[in-house]
Design goal:
elongated; nine-stranded mixed beta sheet; Alpha-Beta Plaits; alpha+beta; 708 residues; single chain
Length: 708
């Protein structure tokens, strides 16, 4: 039956929207939980970092619960939640989302649903629970998607048939209902067949289409299981449509069929033509209801799937598109302007597609389309043009600048559009949160690399415990005498089988997942331990600089923590200068205060990678670093007249501000001679020495060290 098919398609579209919402939030919590390794010490600082995600993901609050069941939340509450099932489950290693519960934190006790994941400490033990509170009314908004001429009703129910959320279009008796079975039984007394059938399909977690009667009015419904939240918890998306709505759609067809039967023998040919005409017209209206996006008037994902199945495409490119931080437009310009922007995006997208290409709006600012081109360069040309046209919307509508993000997946297998969309989303994740690229291909993901990254992440804890991470030392040398002045500590990962994992493979990965903070501390402690050993053995000490990452700087106790570590080894802080990358100072309003705190604790600070792309000469006067390290990209200018003038200006400016100059990446005698003329304090690079393991560095100290 055509009507039932439309009902299924609408339900599937709504289910996809809810599933995507759940998946996004669980992915976020799992990612955030990886950044917490010690709940008792990290929660207060880390909770400040979590605040930014409450608005972005529409959470009421995010909280961390320790082993005693005490929660610390982003909105300032501290309360005992040990009685909550989600806490008890989390301490058993179970992630999930609750059914509707009453908020026990704060003064507003409204209906909420809680997403929760366990937190594991450095010993891979469960140390607490990370949770996020989501107002139940948000689910109601999510399922309040217009369908069937605004007479369709959408609900979310759990495995016990309790209502989680009900759309605004539902009648009062349904909106006030608590349990679907009780609701059906109320109007179907003596007719348990409907109830038992629904119950059976819920137990099987299977799709089902049926009908029931409410006060002499018949309703059709379609029930689809959502992504399985956990083994003992299942939600369903339920769409309900009054029979009269469906009959009203079919009435013109029935009317003309009846008329045609009366005159079939007289004008049979005309009757057939009229029948086909009106049938197609009515079918088109039904299709528009089921397959049309209510905001743009264009295709939704169900229509996209239908058209895709009818076409015989070869190898093509699928593109998932959204706008970075689109919520800013709704916040600053209003929802009406936001809707206008979405319609304009749809127009631009359609204008950039060829007649044989498809597109759809999924929800919010998410779009999906396909491009028929022979190769990647051709696709890139198309997407660059589309990107320019989309960015032009900003000035045309006088709104904040749009920043399109696109993920591209190439395939010749078109059987599963949902899976294809998911892979395009995966590709887009490569550039999400960045403002350097507008699109990424799924091929860029490198599936083998993803698998390798997972292996690297899984091996991190054991690598720390087994001391597979080793500190190597790259000497810093006096350019005039060749004597050793110090060194930079560099990390190397040497597996138990003897294989060496390059820093370029694991450092960027750990910067993304938060493990870099733990690695920073590991290296710092390792250098302190080595300096203490040299001191005990009577070997002269040299300053060994240690890198500290952007993430570590966000912890409020970072200065005191590093000061306590140095004190525990009875070392002078001047032998352990800290290197802060130039990029870590960008968008960090507390950096000047942190620099002062480190100085007060006795540390010397080096501005690393100066000139690598973020340089602001005026910032040198604000951030009182002791030394700037000229990036290799600047050193490579030596030999170019303009580049040498730039280097001359930078070095003289820094020296006039009382800063020392370290040149890194020095590889040639010509570079050394130029840096001597510029009175560079010390030089680091392969010209004098590559990074050395500790035994070789000790030998270097003996050969090139000054008598002390």
């Amino acid at each position: 039956m055509e009507v039932q098919k439309n009902l299924k398609d609408v339900t599937a579209q709504n289910a996809l929207t809810v599933t995507q919402e759940l998946t996004d939030k669980f992915n976020l919590l799992n990612s955030l939980s990886n950044g917490i390794t010690d709940v008792s010490n990290d929660s207060e600082e880390y909770i400040q970092y979590l605040k930014v995600y409450t608005d972005t993901y529409r959470f009421k609050r995010i909280g961390i619960i320790d082993r005693q069941g005490i929660t610390t939340t982003t909105d300032g509450y501290r309360q005992d939640l040990s009685f909550r099932d989600f806490y008890q489950d989390g301490m058993k290693g179970i992630s999930g989302i609750t059914n509707n519960i009453t908020d026990a934190v704060g003064d507003v006790h409204e209906s909420i649903n809680v997403f929760s994941v366990p937190i594991y400490n450095a010993q891979n033990e469960i140390d607490g629970v990370l949770y996020a509170t989501y107002c139940t009314e948000n689910f109601s908004e999510l399922v309040s998607i217009p369908s069937f001429d605004n007479l369709g009703i959408s609900c979310i129910i759990n495995q016990d048939a309790d209502f989680i959320a009900i759309s605004d279009t539902a009648p009062d008796d349904l909106r006030n209902a608590v349990n679907l079975m009780d609701y059906l039984r109320q109007y179907n007394e003596g007719h348990e067949t409907t109830i038992s059938v629904v119950r059976q399909h819920m137990d099987d977690a299977s799709e089902h289409v049926g009908s029931y009667t409410n006060q002499d009015q018949r309703y059709y419904y379609c029930m689809v299981p959502l992504h399985n939240l956990r083994s003992d918890r299942q939600w369903f998306l339920l769409t309900i449509v009054p029979e009269q709505v469906l009959w009203n759609m079919a009435k013109p067809i029935n009317f003309y069929v009846t008329r045609l039967m009366l005159i079939i023998f007289a004008i049979s040919a005309c009757s057939i033509i009229l029948f086909l005409y009106f049938y197609r017209k009515q079918k088109k209206e039904l299709l528009e209801l089921a397959y049309s996006d209510s905001l743009t008037g264009g295709d939704n994902f169900a229509a996209f799937q239908e058209k895709l199945a009818r076409n015989n495409y070869g190898r093509i490119y699928y593109v998932a598109l959204d706008m970075q931080n689109f919520k800013i437009i709704n916040t600053t310009c209003g929802v009406t302007k936001g809707d206008e922007t979405l319609r304009e995006i749809w127009k631009v997208l359609c204008n950039n597609l060829h007649s044989n290409e498809l597109c759809a709006r999924i929800n919010a600012d998410r779009f999906f389309f396909l491009v028929c081109e022979p190769d990647k360069p051709s696709v890139e040309v198309r997407l660059n043009k589309l990107n320019s046209d989309l960015e032009a919307i900003s000035s045309r509508l006088n709104i904040p600048r749009l920043f399109p993000l696109m993920g591209i997946y190439e395939t010749s297998d078109h059987k599963d559009p949902e899976q294809i969309y998911g892979k395009a989303i995966q590709a887009k994740s490569l550039i999400k949160g960045l403002r350097t690229r507008h699109y990424a291909f799924y091929d860029d993901l490198d599936i083998d690399q993803i698998s390798e990254n997972h292996k690297i992440e899984d091996d991190f804890e054991s690598g720390i415990q087994n001391k597979e991470f080793q500190v190597w030392y790259q000497p810093k040398v006096d350019p005039y005498t060749g004597n050793l002045l110090g060194a930079e500590a560099l990390i190397r990962w040497i597996k138990q089988d003897g294989s060496l994992l390059p820093p370029g493979k694991f450092i960027p990965l750990f910067e993304k997942n938060g493990n870099i903070a733990a690695l920073d501390e590991y290296v710092f402690r390792a250098v302190c331990e080595q300096q203490q050993k040299w001191q005990h053995d009577g070997i002269p000490l040299y300053p060994i600089s240690v890198n500290i990452s952007r993430i570590s700087l966000y912890f409020g106790d970072i200065v005191q923590k590093y000061k306590d570590i140095i004190d525990s080894y009875h070392l002078d802080a001047r032998y352990l200068p800290l290197e802060i990358t130039e990029s870590a100072t960008v968008n960090n309003s507390e950096i000047s205060s942190l620099i002062d705190q480190f100085h007060n604790a006795g540390f010397t600070l080096l501005l690393d990678d100066f000139g690598s792309g973020y340089s602001s000469l005026s910032s040198l006067n604000v951030m009182h670093f002791d030394t700037i390290k000229l990036d290799k990209s600047l050193i490579d200018y030596i030999g170019d007249s303009n580049g040498e003038k730039l280097l001359h200006s930078i070095t003289h400016l820094a020296q006039s501000l009382g800063m020392n100059i370290t040149a890194e990446g020095v590889e040639t005698a010509k570079q050394v001679e130029f840096l001597k003329v510029e009175h560079c304090t010390d030089i680091q690079g392969y010209y004098f020495s590559k990074p050395l393991p500790v035994e070789q560095f000790v030998q270097f100290m003996k050969e090139h060290g000054e008598a002390r």
